[in-house]
Amino acid sequence: MTTRPCLILFGPPGSGKGTQAKLLRDKLGMAHISTGDMLRERVVLAKQEGSTDELGKAVAAIMQSGGLVSDELVNKMVEDRIEQPDAANGFILDGYPRTVAQAQLLDCVLKGKKIRTVVVYLKVDYNVIIARLSGRRQCPTCGALYSVSANSPVVSEVCDYDGSKLIVRDDDREEVVLQRLKAYESQTAPVLDCLKSAGYRIFDVQGDLRPPQVIAREIEESIQREFGTARA
Ligand code: AMP
Q1: Summary count for the chain: helices (H), strands (E)
Q2: Does the active-site annotation cover 225?
Q3: Best exposed site among 60, 134, 159, 184 by fewest CB in 10 Å?
Q4: 36 Cα–ligand 1 center, Å
Q5: Cβ of residue 62 lying under 6 Å from some atom of ligand 1
């Protein structure tokens, strides 16, 4: 019996995890699970007039400061999410795990459910990250990501897919970006060693300079080799 696969996209903020996850989910037929997107959805609801979601409001404040929300909340969100029907054929984790405690919980879940897992580490130069995050734009309707330099929309500041006016995410402001990178260095970077020690195969992929589609192709080839013909 083959079990469903899991791809963990690992890397610093701005390394292209979201862009790659969106390209790969369609090619591979796997669900895209982004803890950042799930938290942003909760924050939008919590900010609506009359909302009593105090936890959602607290999450908003943490995200705006560039820090990480609690392991407990994120772990529960992911455990529930991977049981949704669209994840039955496999799933891509984008932005999770981000702490050693999250990695430990995930390791138990993956091994407990015998989910075949590989990790792709998107390596990107620090200066490229800063440039990318400060020039990043997102469609508030469909979530598509653009960059004012490399991957700009056809019409400036307008989404190619649905015509919405693009926005700068709150946490892509410069002072918040620096905090997010600090959180990555201190809390998230150690996760890679933790995943290695737990026995997961890690593929290093150069995440800058090349077009996103070329990077996606390289990831796809690595995954198909690892997961075998079941994903071909
Ligand atoms: P992202 O879109 O993945 O860059 O996430 C945006 C923000 O959401 C982060 O800066 C954190 O505040 C929060 N966040 C996303 N994923 C996690 C996670 N796995 N653990 C804790 N906080 C997270």
Answers
A1: 9, 7
A2: no
A3: 134
A4: 5
A5: yes
Taking residue 102's Cβ as centre, other Cβ atoms within 10 Å add up to 22
Q: Which helix (H) or strand (E) holds 201?
A: strand 201-206
Whether a cis peptide bond, with omega within 30° of 0, leads into 97 is yes
Token pair, residue 9, equals 């996209």
**Cα 163 to the center of its chain, rounded Å:** 24
Tokens of 8: 């963990």
136 is catalytic: yes
- E strands along the chain, which residues? 5-10, 31-34, 91-94, 116-123, 136-138, 145-147, 201-206
Q: What CATH superfamily is the domain 5-124+182-227?
A: P-loop containing nucleotide triphosphate hydrolases (3.40.50.300)
CA 39 to chain centre: 12
Question: pTM for the whole thing?
Answer: 0.89
Residues 191, 107: contact at Cβ < 8 Å? Answer: no
The reply to whether 173 belongs to the active site is no
Find the distance separating the first CA and the last CA of the chain, reported in whole Å.
17
Residue 208's nearest CA partner among 147, 144, 139 is: 147
Residue whose structure tokens are 């490399």: 150
Kindly report, residue by residue over 158-171, the tens digit of the pLDDT.
Answer: 999 999 999 988 88
Q: Which residues of the chain have pLDDT under 70?
A: 1-2, 229-232
Q: Residue 202: what residue type?
A: I
